[in-house]
Amino acid sequence: MTVRLSDRTTLGVGGPAADFVVASSEAELIGYVTSLDAAGHPLLLLGGGSNLVCGDAGFDGTVIATEVRGITIRADGDEIDVVAACGEPWDELVSQAAEARWTGIEALSGIPGLVGATPIQNVGAYGQEVSQTITHVRALDRRTGTVVELAGHECAFTYRGSVFKEETDRWVVLSVGFRLAARGESVVRYAQVADALGQQVGEAGDVQRIRDAVLALRRAKGMVLDRDDPDTRSAGSFFTNPILTESAAATLPSQCPRYVASAGVKVSAAWLIEHSGVTRGWQAVAGSRAAVSSKHTLAISNRGGATASEVIELARAIRGRVHSAFAIELEAEPRFVNCDLGLIVD
């Protein structure tokens, strides 16, 4: 049976896979990868499919669906060490932690995908990043064919990046270790969450209430998967927030939201998009089945039957408008398979 990548990704675009297999154990996953590598056969690791834009021609190789499950928990006083297999659904882990009143990942509620993808992107939202709680990542090094364990500091985490993203074809994440805290309350670090809770940024909030507030905020933006909401047929935020030098950030209007970042000043991609003339529901071409989300300008949604070409056409148009208006080149957050955005055309 032919498997189309459009049926395996949240954006719903992508042609057929030449071959498709499911890895339901770590040994099976390692076996598939090492044997395909030895044969020089192309492969694509597929988790939840929530951060992929797959080309209309599909993938001329083997797609490996990672369905490796398993969670181990060790408590030492207030410290809770959790090790989750790469195929564990991310939000199920967050939900379990919140119910147990373990803090550290509650602001990352509602993010689709699997645990194995979280260190690759250094997944973050509403004031938290997984790098803040990851203790180690167990991974297959495809260069050597060996399994290694990288401590958190060895993962070279950056804003939406890591060593795993920098060398995508080298690493296969097998499991991720997190250290959470059995405190029941966590510091609220994001203004929208604080407002929803009726609190101030920096105050302590109940872990379950923070999770509930984040889920409500994400639903309002079409960022929680819902088959009845076409806005959620997306790859999430399509562009990352640019990190600029202080001098470059100073050239932007004062109304543009900005935040201190380790490598400079992080500015709001959504603000740049909206102030370049792109509105919610905007289309690059009238009648296109790809459109900016009706709830959130950072997301590109599949309104039904869109092709990857239509999605890319829209993304290029958005990026071109922002570059024309502000001389800033937006970087796409999803991974592109057998397609790309190409060069900016203003």
Automatic annotation (TrEMBL):
<keyword id="KW-0961">Cell wall biogenesis/degradation</keyword>
<dbReference type="InterPro" id="IPR036635">
    <property type="entry name" value="MurB_C_sf"/>
</dbReference>
<dbReference type="GO" id="GO:0009252">
    <property type="term" value="P:peptidoglycan biosynthetic process"/>
</dbReference>
<dbReference type="GO" id="GO:0051301">
    <property type="term" value="P:cell division"/>
</dbReference>
<dbReference type="InterPro" id="IPR016166">
    <property type="entry name" value="FAD-bd_PCMH"/>
</dbReference>
<dbReference type="GO" id="GO:0005829">
    <property type="term" value="C:cytosol"/>
</dbReference>
<dbReference type="GO" id="GO:0008762">
    <property type="term" value="F:UDP-N-acetylmuramate dehydrogenase activity"/>
</dbReference>
<keyword id="KW-0285">Flavoprotein</keyword>
<feature type="domain" description="FAD-binding PCMH-type">
    <location>
        <begin position="13"/>
        <end position="183"/>
    </location>
</feature>
<dbReference type="Pfam" id="PF02873">
    <property type="entry name" value="MurB_C"/>
</dbReference>
<comment type="pathway">
    <text>Cell wall biogenesis; peptidoglycan biosynthesis.</text>
</comment>
<protein>
    <recommendedName>
        <fullName>UDP-N-acetylmuramate dehydrogenase</fullName>
        <ecNumber>1.3.1.98</ecNumber>
    </recommendedName>
</protein>
<dbReference type="GO" id="GO:0071555">
    <property type="term" value="P:cell wall organization"/>
</dbReference>
<dbReference type="InterPro" id="IPR016169">
    <property type="entry name" value="FAD-bd_PCMH_sub2"/>
</dbReference>
<dbReference type="GO" id="GO:0008360">
    <property type="term" value="P:regulation of cell shape"/>
</dbReference>
<keyword id="KW-0133">Cell shape</keyword>
<dbReference type="InterPro" id="IPR006094">
    <property type="entry name" value="Oxid_FAD_bind_N"/>
</dbReference>
<keyword id="KW-0560">Oxidoreductase</keyword>
<dbReference type="Pfam" id="PF01565">
    <property type="entry name" value="FAD_binding_4"/>
</dbReference>
<dbReference type="InterPro" id="IPR016167">
    <property type="entry name" value="FAD-bd_PCMH_sub1"/>
</dbReference>
<comment type="function">
    <text>Cell wall formation.</text>
</comment>
<keyword id="KW-0573">Peptidoglycan synthesis</keyword>
<dbReference type="InterPro" id="IPR003170">
    <property type="entry name" value="MurB"/>
</dbReference>
<keyword id="KW-0521">NADP</keyword>
<keyword id="KW-0963">Cytoplasm</keyword>
<keyword id="KW-0131">Cell cycle</keyword>
<dbReference type="InterPro" id="IPR011601">
    <property type="entry name" value="MurB_C"/>
</dbReference>
<keyword id="KW-0274">FAD</keyword>
<dbReference type="GO" id="GO:0071949">
    <property type="term" value="F:FAD binding"/>
</dbReference>
<dbReference type="InterPro" id="IPR036318">
    <property type="entry name" value="FAD-bd_PCMH-like_sf"/>
</dbReference>
<keyword id="KW-0132">Cell division</keyword>
